[in-house]
Design goal:
By secondary structure, the protein is mainly beta. The protein has two helices and 28 strands.
Length: 355
Amino acid sequence: MLKLEMSLILLLGLVCLSSGGCATEERADAVAEPEDDELIYVTNEDSGDLSVISSSAGAVIATIPVGKRPRGVRAGKDGRTVYVALSGSPKCPPWMPEDECEAQVTDKTLDGIAVIDVATASVTQVLPGGSDPEQFDLSIDGDRICVANEDAHVASIVDLDSGAIVATIPVGEEPEGVRTSPDGRLFYVTGETDHNITVIDAASNERVAQIRVGNRPRDVVFSSDSVTAYASSEIDGTVSVINVAQHAVVQTISLPEGSRSMGLALSPDDETLYVSNGRSRTVSVVDVTAGEVVRNIEVGDRPWGIALSGDGRFLYTANGPSNDVTVIDTGTFEVKARIQVGETPWGIAVSPPDR
């Protein structure tokens, strides 16, 4: 965990590194006690930067330029490093005509994984991440990264020490979500248009299975014992419950009508799953034991990235079109704050690392 001293350094030395970086719609002084301070990292896809939020201050304390189209983000195991996926490919949403997408400029030299030193608020290097890296996850030992390469339909394994891609693995078409199992054995990679999850052995970098889930899976998360996994399916508005040992879906949980399930976060006790629902502007709260939705919370415009505080007391969502982050008290399900960040926030990570 980052100590409070690091937060104070950021507060004193890095406030408002770019104009507007400190703007907030509402202060969140009740988000956490000072001794429980965490840093929340938010990638802003259209402004090309990373917002750093202090949980105790409830405000952006630094804005770090990182590169083109930052999306996936993870906090490093050392608590001082943050990794961000960058892409030189143009934004091509599903509704954009193919010829219009192809007419946009692509610059593959801008692809990569930015390595950010939090103390200096600077990008120290950009690692190769394959073509059009979108999401990724760290191996449990923190030595490697598994990256989803959306336009190449593969996953790249990047060795952090050498800074080289050591394996390229075919996965489902348009891969996006990536998660490492807590026991360190597996990488799961979602394939949006093949509607599946590719299971990769993290030791051998070999594909060991593919699991058919719902339509357009966007994210996946594991239980802390690595026995169960959950995958969101945007088009169906469902969550697939996966038996990890069997490589099989054992249950499908339906969300409220109109839900477009996107990002996932699981409570530390493995009992509650939080699902961001994109265009429906909500987060669904799922009791995984009962297999049912117990609450729907309105949070902001098109929430995607989602993460929990280390103790599970607060939930954060990145709301793209409204350029803000919603803070939710998971005990009362109340929205505590809406914090303004950069343009089109996409991903969220919490230090200590999110689940």
